[in-house]
Design goal:
The protein is of the alpha+beta class. The chain has helices spanning about 5, 10-15, 50-55, 70, 90-100, 105-110, 110-125, 135-140, 140-150, 160-170, 200-225, 230-240, 250-260, 265-280, 280-290, 295-305, 335-340, 375-390; strands at about 35-40, 45, 65, 130-135, 240, 245, 310-315, 320, 325, 330-335, 395, 405, 415, 420. β8 and β9 form a beta hairpin. The longest helix is centred in the middle third of the chain and has 27 residues, at about 200-225. Bound molecules: protoporphyrin IX containing FE (HEM). Belongs to the cytochrome P450 family.
Length: about 425
C-alpha cells in the first residue's frame, strides 16, 4: 500500500487497518441497534446513545459512581477516600471543591511556557532522524512530565509511571464488549473495576498496584510535610476539608488519580488528532492556512476518536433508560465514544468536521464528575500540536510502518504512531 492510496480512506475503514478492538463497532462507522442494551455475557447494560449517557452522567442519585460493590462484591475492603471518580455527593462535592482550589485555571494557564519548552526539547531530541514515533517521542513524555512536575514528583520516575499505566490499562487486553477489567482507580473515568466478571487475580493485582502507588506518594507527602514546596502535593498536604486535613490514604488515592488521569488520555488525544489530520489532508491544509482553527480540530478529534471510551455507573433504584427498564443494583457501561457518534445529535457522525457547531461531545464526561483536567488537556493539545505541525509541515504516517491502536477496549488511541517528517 502506498501513502497515496491511504489518503482518501475514511477513518472508519482505517480503524480496521489499525487494528481497532472488535468492541468498538462505532469506529467502523456502525450505529448501535439500540441506545441501551443488556449484555448477557458481561452481565451489564451497555449505554451507547448520547441522550441516555448524558441522562446517566447527570443523575448521580439514581446512578452511583461507587461501582466496585456492584462489580466486585467480594473485593477486599479498601480505602475509598480520595478516589474522586468513585465518589457520590456530598463527599464528592467536598473533595472536588478542594481539588478545584488546588488546581486553578491560573495554575493551568501558568504552565503554558513550560509545555512549550518541553515540546521543543522533546522534538529537538528526535531532530534529524526524518522520523518520529509520536507516542514515545512526544505524546507520552510530554503530559507525564507536565503532571509529574505539577504534582512535584520526579519526572525521572517516568518509566515507573508508564509501568503503572500499563498495569492499569494493559496494551493487549481484549475482553468481551463491556466486560473489560480495570482497577480500583483508573483514569478520571469509571474509577472503578470494570466489567462484572473481574477475576480474583485481576482484583488482587489492582489492589496491589494501588498499594504500591500509595506507598510512593506517602514518601513524597511526608517530605512535603517537613519541607513544603511550590507544588500540588504540598497544596494537597496542607488542604483541609471541613477543617480536616486529607488522610494519607486519601492523598495517595487522589495523587495517583491525577497522575494516571493526567497523562494517558492526553497521550491518546495528541496521537488521535495527528491521525485525524493525516487521514484528512484537506483539513490539514485548512489548518495550515488558519492555525487558529486548532482548538476546533482538537474538539472534533475528541468527539470522533474519544480517548477514554467507557465509564461505569450502577443503578441505585429501578430506572427507565432509553426505553428499557433497568432494575436497581445493575451496572451500566457508558460508551462515550459511541455516544459521541449518535446521529440523533451529530449530523454525519462518522465524518471529521472541525468547527461543527455545536459540538457538545462528552469526551470529558458531563455533570459533577466533568473532567477536572480538561483545561490542562486542551492546553497541552493546543501547544504541542501547534508546535509539532509548525515544525513538521510534511508530517505524515508511514505506509510501510502503519500506526497500531491500543487493543484495550477501554481506550482509543495509538499504541505506536510512526511518522515521516521529511518532505516526499
Ligand atoms: C474525570 C476524560 C485529561 C483528571 C474525567 C471524566 C472523563 C475524563 C470522561 C469523567 C469521569 C466520570 O464521569 O466518571 C479525560 C480525557 C482527557 C482527560 C478525554 C484528555 C484528553 C485529564 C487530565 C487530568 C484529568 C490532564 C489531570 C491533570 C481527571 C480527574 C477526574 C477526571 C481528577 C475526576 C473528576 C471527578 O470525579 O469529579 N476525565 N480526562 N483528566 N479527569 Fe479527565
Amino acid at each position: 500500500m502506498t501513502y497515496q492510496s491511504l489518503r482518501p480512506v475514511p477513518l472508519s475503514v482505517l480503524a480496521d487497518q489499525w487494528g481497532a478492538p472488535e468492541a468498538h463497532f462505532w469506529l467502523r462507522g456502525i450505529a448501535p441497534e439500540r441506545p441501551v442494551a443488556f449484555d448477557e455475557q458481561a452481565g451489564l447494560w451497555n449505554v451507547y446513545g448520547y441522550p441516555e449517557a448524558v441522562e446517566v452522567f447527570s443523575d448521580p442519585a439514581a446512578y452511583t459512581s461507587d461501582t466496585v460493590p456492584y462489580i466486585a462484591p467480594d473485593a477486599p475492603e479498601y480505602e475509598k477516600s480520595g478516589l474522586l471518580t468513585q465518589m457520590d455527593p456530598p463527599a464528592h462535592r467536598q473533595l472536588r471543591q478542594l481539588a478545584g482550589r488546588a488546581f486553578t485555571p491560573r495554575l493551568v494557564a501558568g504552565l503554558a511556557p513550560r509545555i512549550c519548552a518541553l515540546t521543543h526539547e522533546l522534538l529537538d531530541q528526535a531532530d534529524g532522524r526524518g522520523t518520529l514515533e509520536l507516542v514515545d517521542d512526544l505524546a507520552h513524555p510530554l503530559p507525564v512530565t507536565v503532571i509529574a512536575e505539577l504534582l512535584g514528583v520526579p519526572a525521572s520516575d517516568r518509566p515507573l509511571f508508564r509501568q503503572w499505566s500499563e498495569e492499569i490499562f494493559p496494551r493487549e487486553k481484549v475482553t468481551a464488549r463491556g466486560g473489560s477489567a480495570g482497577t480500583a482507580d483508573g483514569d478520571g473515568g469509571s474509577g472503578g473495576a470494570s466489567g462484572t466478571d473481574g477475576g480474583g487475580d485481576e482484583i488482587a493485582a489492582a489492589f496491589d498496584l494501588v498499594r504500591r502507588m500509595n506507598e510512593y506518594f506517602a514518601v513524597h507527602a511526608d517530605d512535603r510535610r517537613r519541607q513544603p514546596r511550590e507544588d500540588l502535593l504540598t497544596r494537597l498536604v496542607q488542604a483541609e476539608v471541613d477543617g480536616e486535613r486529607l488522610s494519607e490514604a486519601a492523598l495517595g488515592n487522589f495523587a495517583q488519580l491525577l497522575l494516571v488521569a493526567g497523562h494517558i488520555t492526553t497521550t491518546m488525544l495528541l496521537g488521535n488528532t495527528v491521525l485525524c489530520l493525516d487521514a484528512h489532508p484537506e483539513r490539514r491544509a485548512e489548518l495550515r492556512r488558519d492555525p487558529a482553527a486548532l482548538p476546533a480540530v482538537i474538539e472534533e478529534s475528541l468527539r470522533l476518536l474519544t480517548p477514554f471510551e467507557v465509564f461505569y455507573r450502577a443503578t441505585t433504584r429501578d430506572v427507565e433508560l432509553g426505553g428499557q427498564r433497568v432494575p436497581a443494583g445493575q451496572v451500566l457501561a457508558l460508551w462515550t465514544g459511541a455516544a459521541n457518534r449518535d446521529e440523533r445529535v451529530f449530523a454525519g457522525p462518522h465524518d471529521f468536521v472541525p468547527g461543527r457547531d455545536p459540538n457538545p461531545h462528552i469526551a470529558f464526561g458531563r455533570g459533577i464528575h466533568f473532567c477536572l483536567g480538561a483545561p490542562l488537556a486542551r492546553l497541552e493539545g493546543r501547544i504541542a500540536l501547534g508546535i509539532l505541525l509548525e515544525r513538521h509541515p510534511e508530517l505524515r504516517t508511514d505506509p510501510d510502518n502503519p500506526p497500531v491502536l491500543m487493543a484495550n477496549p477501554e481506550l482509543t488511541g495509538p499504541r505506536t504512531l510512526p511518522l515521516l517528517t521529511a518532505g516526499r
